[in-house]
Amino acid sequence: MNIGLFGYGKMGKMIEQIAQQRGHAIVAKVDVETEEISFKTMDVAIDFSTPDAAFGNITQCFENNVPVISGTTGWLDNYENALDICKQKQSAFIYASNFSLGVNVFFELNAQLAKMMKGLDQYKASMEEIHHTQKLDAPSGTAITLAEGIIANTEYKEWKLEEQGDKTIPITSKREGMVPGTHTINYESLVDTIEIKHTAHNREGFALGAVIAAEWIKGKTGVFSMKDVLNLN
Ligand SMILES: NC(=O)C1=CN([C@@H]2O[C@H](COP(=O)(O)OP(=O)(O)OC[C@H]3O[C@@H](n4cnc5c(N)ncnc54)[C@H](OP(=O)(O)O)[C@@H]3O)[C@@H](O)[C@H]2O)C=CC1
Ligand SMILES: O=C(O)C1=N[C@H](C(=O)O)C[C@H](O)C1
Q: What are the Dihydrodipicolinate reductase N-terminal domain coordinates in residue numbering (predicted)?
């Protein structure tokens, strides 16, 4: 398969390695300085760029009939617009805040635990995410997805950075060294704490998931999720 990489930073480079190991070719590496992009040679585009660049990259691909896998976080104010353009152009799209198998299992565990905690008012939910100091957005996209999973299954109404409140899930974002990504959910009462945690040891799991998603989407039309790719439905 011929892959176009949008964003050739930490993730772009890791995706290149894994895609090549799986027999794919990288036919374009697009960054902010790229003037001409040859969409015709691409079977699929994989976007791991920046919050400011993602929407433009993704919609350019739809305009040129190239399906997109997007892992960029921090651009979701424009998510519904992107879906509209994808559908209008009959293209194909997967966005995931986290492409690793482990985190996608963790998303399911989080939803199951939230269902069990619903109505147990003695417990207060909170979340912590830790990432490397180069990360541009906070909270992480993964933390937002986890918070949405709790909100969908409990009486919590919203998440906020740090803020407390009965119906609010406070998220603490820490930036330390080279940490690839650690997410912890706590339900705390006066007598005990229930904690679930996912720790990424490196970026390989994210990159492998994105390449598997690209292999899966080739030839399809529509908007999908990692649940479809991994058969977690
Ligand atoms: N969904 C997931 O599983 C994961 C998501 N992520 C997300 O992916 C994104 C990228 O992460 P990471 O690789 O670590 O970040 P990096 O900063 O290492 O890489 C981003 C790259 O995008 C480049 N870039 C800037 N503008 C454009 C543009 N207009 N078009 C294309 N590329 C551009 C940057 O170039 P320059 O440096 O010159 O600005 C940089 O090389 C982040 O949003 C991060 O949160 C990360 C890991 C996993
Ligand atoms: O920026 C990162 O590095 C990561 N970003 C994603 C996020 O915002 O959740 C996924 C992963 O945690 C690494």
A: 1-99
Of the listed ligands, the closest to the CA of 54 is 1
Q: Which residue puts its alpha carbon closest to atom 5 of ligand 1?
A: 71
45 is in an annotated binding site: no
Nearest atom, ligand 2, residue 135 CA: 1
**How do beta strands 92-95 and 68-70 pair?**
parallel
- Helix or strand holding residue 196 (H, E): strand 193-199
Could you give the number of structural domains in the chain? Answer: 2
Q: Which domain holds residue 23?
A: 2-99+204-230
- What global pTM score does this model have? 0.97
Could you tell me the CATH number of the domain that includes residue 139?
A: 3.30.360.10
Q: For the segment 108-134, what is each residue's pLDDT rounded down to a tens digit?
A: 999 999 999 999 999 999 999 999 999
ipTM above 0.85, yes or no: yes
